[in-house]
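[Discussion] Sanity-checking designs against the backbone

I'm trying to build intuition for which residues belong where. Below is a structure token string of 277 positions. I'd appreciate it if someone posts a full sequence so I can compare it with mine line by line.
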């Protein structure tokens, strides 16, 4: 008789996929302004596993973006540690690629193809010919094959974000870090980009850490959601989304989880988010 896994079904499933890709342990992060030393997060800890769509959710100022920058290696914890595959993160590296909110993250003098190929060539991970071939492949995955020879100023905001995602994914990083990449888009384009990101994830099964302050976006995109308190960010809860056979969160579960998170973050002062998320 086979031994049964201990713990809850969630714990059993987690054990089956092995150890974490990313581990954040008791991370306190600070940064300086011209007047103050700001504590962005206080003793935050969590694990991210392979193929997670892991969401960092919380109100503005809770340290979400600072935490993402620390995972990327741009900010060092003053307390605690961050490790990737059991190696302490102490600097940026091509094993962690970021997609930012801003539309101007592309090189304006390079075509879409050249933008996507650039980090592969610059890091010497691939030769120029192979980098261009891989660039075309990932440009195709984000449905921009017809625009490979165009320049950023000829693209819409959503198209620019697709290029940024293709560029990051082409490097095949251990983790794709996304800092509110759809926040500056109009509501319809934002929803389309969310659907396209899910579709892309189903094709490549990459590991994503995604920052948002939208509860709806967190539930729609994430399989695991870390809820952070207002400044300084502390862990309020780590939630797992239950999805149906179609990969979507059933509407009743969606509403219940949204209300739970709203109550957690706002208590009696609940503010409904826009419907076009």
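Best answer:
Here's mine. Compare freely.
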């Amino acid at each position: 008789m086979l031994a049964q896994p201990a713990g809850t079904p969630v714990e059993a499933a987690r054990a089956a996929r092995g150890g974490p890709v990313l581990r954040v342990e008791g991370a306190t992060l600070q940064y300086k302004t011209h007047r103050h030393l700001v504590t962005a997060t206080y003793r935050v800890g969590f694990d991210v596993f392979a193929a997670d769509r892991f969401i960092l959710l919380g109100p503005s100022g809770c340290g979400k973006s600072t935490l993402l920058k620390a995972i990327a290696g741009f900010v060092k914890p003053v307390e605690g540690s961050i490790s990737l595959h059991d190696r302490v993160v102490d600097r940026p590296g091509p094993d962690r690629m970021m997609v930012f909110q801003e539309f101007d993250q592309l090189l304006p003098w390079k075509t879409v193809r050249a933008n996507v190929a650039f980090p592969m060539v610059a890091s010497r991970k691939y030769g120029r010919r192979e980098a261009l071939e891989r660039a075309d492949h990932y440009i195709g995955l984000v449905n921009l094959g017809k625009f490979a020879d165009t320049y950023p100023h000829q693209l819409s905001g959503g198209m620019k974000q697709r290029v940024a995602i293709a560029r990051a994914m082409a490097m095949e990083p251990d983790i794709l870090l996304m800092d509110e990449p759809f926040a500056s888009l109009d509501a319809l384009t934002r929803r389309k980009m969310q659907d396209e990101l899910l579709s892309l994830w189903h094709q490549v099964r990459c590991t994503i850490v995604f920052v948002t302050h939208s509860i709806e976006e967190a539930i729609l995109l994430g399989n695991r959601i870390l809820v952070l308190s207002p400044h300084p960010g502390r862990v309020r809860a780590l939630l797992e989304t239950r999805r149906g056979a179609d990969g979507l969160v059933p509407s009743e579960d969606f509403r219940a989880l949204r209300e739970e998170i709203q109550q957690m973050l706002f208590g009696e002062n609940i503010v409904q988010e826009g419907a076009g998320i």
